[in-house]
Amino acid sequence: MNPDRQAMIDGSKSPRKDRDRDITAPRYDSSNRIAKSSRQLPPRNNPAAAVGRYLTQDQQSEQFIADEDKFVLKQAKKKADIRVREQRAQPVDYLAFGLRFIDPDRDSFDDDEDDIEIQIPAPEAVVESLNEAQLKELEEDVRSYHTLEHNARNKEYWTALLALCSDRRQKLKPQGPEGRAVTSVASDVDRILSPKTLEQLEGLEKQIKAKLQSNEPIDTDYWEALLKSLLVYKAKAKLKKVCAVIKEARVEMLKARDPERAMALEASDGFSDRVPELLPGAPKAVAKPAPSTTVGVSSSSAPPPGTARFASAGNEDFSQATKALYDREVARGVGEGEEIFAAEEAVPGIQKPLWADKHRPRKPRYFNRVLMGYEWNKYNQTHYDHDNPPPKVVQGYRFNVFYPDLIDKTKAPTFKIIREHGRRKGESFAPAGKEDTCLIRFIAGPPYEDIAFRIVDREWDYSAKKERGFKSSFDKGILQLHFQFKKVYYRK
Q1: How many CB atoms are located within 10 Å of the residue 478 CB?
Q2: Which of 160, 232, 363, 384 meets the CB 3.0–4.6 Å disulfide criterion with 238?
Q3: Phi/psi class of residue 477: alpha, beta or left (left: φ > 0; alpha: ψ in -120 to 50)?
Q4: Where in the sequence does UniProt note compositional bias of the Low complexity kind (predicted)?
């Protein structure tokens, strides 16, 4: 008989343990395998959680600017590498190229196996080899790297170079009586400071500052001049520290390829004392598409008088016809919503043209603009308004490439779109929130080389609307390619 029934007949208590359970509680079912999760879910409509998920407008603007700075810095480093490999580098290119071996932000896909074979001049030797005009230009380039750089060690490297550039410029200037007085004891200062380490220099700096702040009767001019010199030697010590890390990284890379050369590099300073001969520095053009100095070119190949600012590369076109076309385009200025565009890239698979033996190859000049504006998509319409607009995005390009001296004027220059990694038109390999890019290559006949630029890969608007329609023409030596991207409209 059922124990519960027998207990009821006998008038005794049921032997079941769950007899006294809460009748409102759910009944236990041994066949049910579903168990309630013990994880506590966050309450809905929690303002604190929403703040963590969404960025404010200021934070979005800061993030956009930071991403843009990273892109500009990456492109500058990539261009410096290309110019060094092609032996047409600026002084700043050698400084950036040496830093690439320890730069954690470098893209490994940009590396070349022969980079380890390139002789890099010592940074201090590069600064010491320049004249005042070249130093001024180098200082501007170094300051640009210093502004864009966020890595602490890299920033310290550029800070030290700024100090050396400033000191070198001061030494090249004519000195008055006070300067000559300081120079007379320069040998003593060098003898005192040069053998000291960075830690010793920092300790001496504290002592000198304490002496200057004290009430002791001291020669203030001498101690201030000594402190100024100490800061320069401190920058040199920091630079040597970074250069030692660069040398160590190069030795490790070379050990796998050539152990003997790795041992020789380890025994040396790691840098070459010879600095390639540079042409005298020239003022930068309005739109600087290429380096402003040339390496390995004799002074006899200097541009004609009055055109130095247009000769930014040894093989660049600086003819009088090109100069006139360039000046005319520059005079048009940059309109509202436009920015100067000079994101030049290396032409993939470039080979020496067949006509190179008959005509001297030269790179065409250009003055390009990129169109920037606001994109009022569904997200931006929700989160922004005209008083608080979203970040600007690329909306199109205006290319103006000058070919005034074409040998065969019956064949107009043309352009070609190149998509890397096998990507086809309409396909996208970019992550969410990003846009694909492609190369646009401009092709012409002798005596002009091909050039390429990296642009955003979106569908073009081929309409003929005034001022913003598609334009592709070649007239009076100017190839003009103007286009904007198709706008995507959202229904309300």
Answers
A1: 19
A2: 160
A3: left
A4: 282-301
Q: What is the DSSP string of 28-95?
A: P-TT-------PPPPPSS-HHHHHHHS--HHHHHHHHHHHHHHHHHHHHHHHHHHHHHTT---HHHHH
Which of 41, 465, 101, 442 lies closest to 253, judged by CA?
101
Backbone angles phi, psi at 161, to 5 degrees: -70, -35
Contact, 231 vs 243, CB < 8 A?
no
Strand partners for 460: 485
What pTM did the predictor assign? 0.46
Please give the structure tokens belonging to residue 414.
């043309």
Per DSSP bridges, beta strands 451-456 and 471-475 are: unpaired
Distance, CA of 266 to CA of 194 (rounded, Å): 23
- The helix-helix angle for 220-255 and 259-267 (nearest 10°) equals 170
State the Cα torsion 200-201-207-208 to the nearest 10°.
Answer: 160
Residue pLDDT, tens place only, 324-373: 888 888 878 888 888 888 878 888 776 677 777 777 888 899 999 999 88
The amino acid at residue 478 is I
- In order, the DSSP letters of 261-308 are HHHHHHHS-SSBS----BPPP-PPPSS--S-SS-BS--GGGPPPTT-G
Which letter does DSSP use for residue 464 in this model? Answer: -
Cα(75)–Cα(93) distance, integer angstroms: 12
